[in-house]
What does this fold into?
Amino acid sequence: MILALNCGSSSIKFKLFLLSDLQVLILGSASKVNSKGQKPVIKLVVHHDQGQKDETSTEEEKEGMEYDAVFQRTIELIEASLSARFHVDTQTRGETKARDVIKLVAHRVVHGGSQAEPMALWPGHEAGLELLDKLSEFAPLHNHRAVQVVKSCLEHLPSSKQVLLFDTLFHQTIPRHIYTYPIPIPPSPPLIPLRKYGAHGLSYASILSLLSAHLAVPASSLSLVIAHLGSGASVCCVKDGKSLDTSMGLTPLEGLPGGTRSGSVDPALAFHAVDAAGEVVYAQGGLKLSKGEMTLNKEAGLLAVAGTSEFSAITLRAFGNDTNASEEEKESSKLAYDLFLDRLINFVAPYITKILGSSPNAHLDGIVISGGIGERSIQLRRDLASYLAWIGVELDDTRNEQVGRGDEGRVVWEITKDDAKIKMFVCMTDEETQCARMAKDYIKEQEGSKIRSEH
It folds into this structure.
């Protein structure tokens, strides 16, 4: 079996697959982890054979439970479900544990620096893990947590190989003139070259694959502008199946505003908005951040403008559907909504130009909206489409309102009219399945290479 893990600063999403055909057996999440004043919640959904109803369970943990402890409890719950379904003995008296059937663990890691391929680790072969932890300074909300969980897996799932898949891998194709920053060479060598690396790459790879299947067109010939809009938000320009440009940069802070991230701002802003911006205020597992970085990562974005990072709450207040909201809350929420839409247009429109203006025969296969905000906000999709009507985006209001309804298992919706010159799609991204597929392919290739070298 393959266990795919997607670790955020306060959440752990997971899916357990059969190794042979990537059939999903168990999926779920641990939420509200390390969230002040809240109790972590672990949710499991166990898929059964056809004709049997899926089994869902939810367990609330103690407030203040450490991240590693929540992960260990998650593994125990997965193991208990495996034991019940497959009758594997979970005792330690010499028998195989249920967790031993997990042969691969696929980890989503946000920042891999210049790493050009996935990384495989197992007990006794852990080279590279220290570097990834140091890279946490370039992805402070995610990398350290992912490394924590890798270490936990090495200890608690010793029968498995750990395969680390980096969001930055998808963006290795960005040309030099696009990824280069116009800055002087630092006096001391930095940990990694200071350039644009991008993020959300596993999501973009998943969306590219899903659109390829939906349109029955090879991924290598697709040109798309994809917006991954969630608490972390970014846009990617994909030309002929490869990342040409993306809104996030050296760190995920560049680009669109997020739930608590500022997005792109004047580089001098932090020094004017934050007292003692260079002071080190955060240290966890050796990770240190300046006060300015911490403020722009954790206290900015939608939260700073609207007082909440929840886009659904912002939309309700902004358009008068929240009768309990004060006038001040309505006004600040409308400002946050308008600001987010404006910044989104600031990336989508130029990326369309980069694709269509690249050659006389260039084509754009579509604009794709994804992520929690993109999948749920009818209003945002409608407003984005209205700004793009001049290039032939004609929204079908009925289709737009039907996204997420109807066919179970559907992952792609076309929301423009049949005769629209430029198509717009909504796609349910699946980073966990993408991780599992890439991990399986990578290990298979590595084992094949080993066999070829031996002969």
In short: The first helix runs from residue 67 to 86.
